[in-house]
Design goal:
The chain is of the alpha+beta class. It has 13 helices and 10 strands. A hairpin with a 2-residue loop joins β4 and β5. α3 crosses α8, α3 packs across α11 and α12 runs antiparallel to α13. The longest helix is centred in the middle third of the chain and has 15 residues. The chain is globular and about 55 Å long.
Length: 398
């Protein structure tokens, strides 16, 4: 599956393929690190970027833009189709799987707990786990007693990414997907798989994106609050901020109505991957949402309505990762000098990203209904088209 791509800041990955969903060196493109909140692109350029995603292999692409903090006046655009069989178009209310955008909500809850004094970023992860959850792997090679909450949040724990386990990867997104799509997993089972592998680095020494980190954070939330992480997200974020179309399906393979279809490429063939058991993702990426709810959430988060200033500073800080990742949030530096903040996520049949200005008043969320387009369009083109003046967007992507 890959549950989640690593963040793709333009300076390091402006030309990476959406299909690759990883970090590709491309450091020759200059950018300014200072945001330019007044800059904005044109609706025509943003819609053209969606059409390029479809031309490069996505059945459909859609975006929702909010400007000036006016959520009720957000602009929807779409290209391609939501369902290859019926030809149905993508619609604004459609639900889809958000993959690792889940992580931003999980990180927000963890930082709220830190702000309440119920947790410290420097606490050992092993001190906040429910009974029966393993603390280490064979021979203590991977050991949660050496990992802090901070290192889980910013992916510097060194914990092996469980979705990279060869056997499991085949079942989650490879040739074994059709036969194993309804397999049920628990967070403890997936953690055991991760801990059976040696760490990728000594904790705190290197950034390495790992879904295991947020799997553990979901367990930490349960231990600290006494409630499943999804319940805490609902109570603290979904209900008070009106995210009525966002859910955490647990073991349910279905998407709420309305929805289109999701597609994956497996061994060169396109497979309908709309339905599967999302317990394989858990706190690392099981969330289902809509474009409208994503904009609503990031408007509240970036606008300072979810976290106290100290925790907001921690959320944005990329110091420990050399400018790659904060705590469930990362910056994307566009070629016109604008810096936007957000996250992306992919899971079988779906890829999505949200990015916004530092104050959360200008946002774009976009999605495609596949995790593996056949072409090489960089999804950052959508962000450039929206946040950069038209002349910059045309020069960079003509």
């Amino acid at each position: 599956m890959p549950l989640s791509p690593a963040p793709r800041t333009l300076a390091r990955a402006a030309l990476s393929a959406l299909a690759a969903l990883g970090l590709t060196a491309c450091s020759s493109i200059p950018f300014a690190s200072v945001p330019s909140p007044g800059a904005s692109g044109s609706p025509a350029a943003a819609t053209a970027a969606l059409h390029r995603l479809v031309a490069d292999g996505a059945p459909g692409a859609a975006s929702l833009v909010t400007r000036g903090g006016r959520l009720s006046a957000s602009r929807f655009a779409a290209a391609g189709v939501a369902d290859l069989r019926s030809g149905r178009k993508m619609r604004r209310p459609d639900h889809f799987r958000a993959g690792s955008l889940t992580k931003t909500l999980v990180a927000t809850v963890v930082l709220q707990l830190v702000g309440e004094g119920r947790l410290s970023l420097d606490d050992r992860a092993a001190d906040h786990l429910p009974p029966g959850v393993p603390r280490s792997g064979p021979h203590d090679a991977s050991d949660l007693r050496r990992v802090t909450v901070r290192q889980l949040l910013d992916h510097t724990s060194g914990l092996f990414n469980y979705t990279d386990d060869p056997r499991l990867a085949t079942q989650l997104s490879g040739a074994g997907f059709p036969a194993h799509r309804y397999d049920r997993y628990t967070a403890t089972e997936l953690l055991r798989i991760a801990l059976a592998h040696p760490p990728t680095a000594t904790p705190g020494t290197a950034y390495a994106y790992s879904n295991t980190n947020y799997l553990v954070l979901g367990l930490v939330i349960r231990a600290v609050t006494g409630h499943p992480y999804a319940e805490e997200v609902r109570r603290r974020i979904l209900v008070p901020f009106g995210l009525r179309d966002t859910s955490f399906p647990g073991n349910s393979p279905a998407l709420p109505a309305p929805h289109g279809r999701g597609y994956s490429r497996i061994d060169g063939h396109r497979v309908d991957s709309t339905a599967f058991d999302p317990s394989r993702a858990g706190a690392a990426g099981e969330m289902i949402t809509t474009l409208g709810d994503l904009n609503r959430f990031f408007a509240a988060l970036l606008g300072g309505r979810l976290l106290a200033p100290r925790q907001m500073s921690e959320l944005r800080s990329e110091k420990a990762t050399d400018g790659t990742y904060g705590m469930g949030l990362y910056a994307t530096h566009l070629p016109c000098g604008v810096t936007v903040w957000g996250h992306n996520g992919d899971i079988s049949g779906s890829y999505a990203q949200t990015a916004g200005t530092a104050d959360g008043r200008h946002l774009v969320s976009y999605r495609v209904n596949t995790d593996a387009p056949a072409g090489h369009t960089d999804g950052t083109a959508v962000l450039t088209a929206e946040f950069c003046p038209p002349r910059t967007a045309r020069t960079r992507h003509s």
